[in-house]
Specification:
By secondary structure, this protein is α+β, with helices and mostly antiparallel strands. About 40% of the residues lie in helices and about 15% in strands. It has helices at about 5-15, 20, 25-35, 45-50, 65-75, 90-100, 120-130, 165-170, and strands spanning about 55-60, 80-85, 115, 140, 145-150, 155. The strands form 2 sheets. The chain has a 4-stranded mixed sheet with strand order 4-2-5-6, with helices on one face. It has a two-stranded antiparallel ribbon with strand order 1-3.
């Protein structure tokens, strides 16, 4: 996975609800959250990934990382085993999601790309050398199960529902 989960959602919410966020957070903090929108292109990592026996790439969008994982597994006809504790997340995302009671794993995440390759360690190293944060968050499996692990506990990934950002837009 490249960059950070929920970058787009965090940036959009920080832009749309800046005044509310400033009741708890500094102006600089809110600006840093808004600035995440400047980093949502995935062209560079897609170009690099193409050199590493990549079998799938998926720019995570609506539905967040949960939705992206589900879509990737369905399109590739594979199962997944993903460690959520390995999913990179910015502190701004943690705080914005806590403030609005949102699940960051279900929040729109353009700028974050899932990449499937048997050369994961090599790809992560190449991406990091190019200035693109990346992490191995899991693996594909031959069965169709979609397992997520958080704090050592296994559970099943559910089909994506509405993006968390709609809670903000709809005033929920």
């Amino acid at each position: 996975m490249t960059k950070y989960v929920a970058m787009e959602g965090t940036g959009l919410i920080a832009r749309e609800r800046a005044e509310e966020l400033r009741t708890r957070y500094s102006k600089d903090f809110v600006q840093n959250a808004q600035d995440l929108l400047c980093h949502i292109s995935v062209m560079k990592e897609a170009e690099i990934a193409g050199e590493y026996d990549t079998s799938a790439m998926h720019d995570i969008r609506e539905g967040g990382v949960y939705g992206g994982l589900w879509e990737l597994a369905a399109a590739s006809q594979v199962g997944l085993k993903v460690d959520l504790d390995a999913v990179p997340m910015k502190q701004e995302t943690v705080e914005v999601c806590e403030f609005f009671d949102l699940n960051p794993y279900k929040l729109t995440s353009s700028g974050c790309m899932l990449i499937v390759t048997p050369r994961g360690r090599d790809l992560v190293q190449a991406l990091c050398e190019a200035g693109i944060p990346a992490a191995i968050i899991g693996k594909t499996t031959k069965d169709q199960s979609r397992i997520i692990i958080r704090e050592g506990e296994e559970g099943f990934l559910e089909p994506p529902k509405s993006d968390e950002r709609f809670k903000i837009l709809n005033g929920i």
